[in-house]
Amino acid sequence: MNVFRQWMARILGHKLLGLVAIVVLWFWAGAADRATVQLLSFLVLNVLLAQSINLLTGIAGQISLGHAGFFAIGAYAAGVLSKTYGVAVPVALVLAIAMTAAAGWLLAIPAGRVKEIYLAMMTTGFGLLCFEIAKEWSSVTGGVVGLSGIASPTLRNLKILGWTVDAVDLLRIMLVATAIVLLLMRNFVQSHHGRAFFAVQASEIAAGSIGIPRGTVKRRAYAISGAMAGLAGALYAHLVGYLGPDSFGIMRSVEVLVMAIVGGLGTIIGPILGAALFTWLPERLQVFAEYQFMVYGLILMVIFLVLRRGIAGALIEPTRFIAPRAMTVHRAIHAGAETKPASGTDATAGDPPALLDVHDLGRNFAGLVALDGVSLSLRPGRITALIGPNGSGKSTLVNVVSGIYPPSRGRVVLASEDVGGKADHAIARRGLVRTFQDPRLVPTFTVRENVLLGGQRHFRSTMLAAALRWPSSLREEADMVRRTETVLSLAGLQAVADQTIESLPYGYRRLVEVGRAILAEPTVVLLDEPAAGLSEAEQSQLAAMIRHLRDAGKAVLLIEHHMDFVNDIVDDVVVLDSGRVIYRGHMRGMREDPAVIAAYLGVGQDGHA
Question: Can you tell me the distance from the alpha carbon of 55 to that of 218, in angstroms, rounded to the nearest whole number?
Answer without folding.
Answer: 11
